[in-house]
Design goal:
mainly alpha
Length: 128
């Protein structure tokens, strides 16, 4: 699992929970099931918690976007290596077994890169 994924999942779920709690408080106040002073006391700390979580999520999303940019560059570089490898085998510059080993390694690297990139984009979309 990617290092950002655990943190993202925890922050995102805590934020969603805090928002549901605030909505529950709003409903309790609207139904006169709690006093205004009690509501203000509880909702104040809850709003602070929501603000902190949103700030943390925003920073995390910035880092995830930066990581996505790195992965896109990495994928492009791996694709260039694959093209270079193809040129070398066509030109009989390398042996078939060397070609196969290198191609397999590049393809595995490209798949891992693209999988992580897809995960990051999915997580960002989830928040947006």
């Amino acid at each position: 699992m990617s290092s950002w994924k655990n943190t993202f999942d925890v922050v995102h779920s805590e934020l969603e929970l805090a928002k549901r709690k605030k909505q529950a408080l709003d409903e309790l106040l609207a139904k006169n099931r709690m006093s205004q002073p009690t509501y203000e006391h509880i909702v104040g700390s809850l709003n602070d918690n929501i603000d902190d979580l949103e700030s943390h999520l925003k920073l995390l999303m910035q880092k995830m976007t930066e990581r996505a940019d790195e992965l896109e560059s990495q994928a492009e570089l791996i694709k260039q290596f694959l093209v270079s490898l193809e040129m070398r085998i066509i030109a009989n510059e390398i042996k078939q077994d060397t070609y196969e080993k290198n191609k397999r390694a590049f393809e595995l690297g490209l798949k891992a890169t693209e999988d992580e990139l897809t995960e990051i984009k999915g997580a960002i979309t989830k928040v947006i």
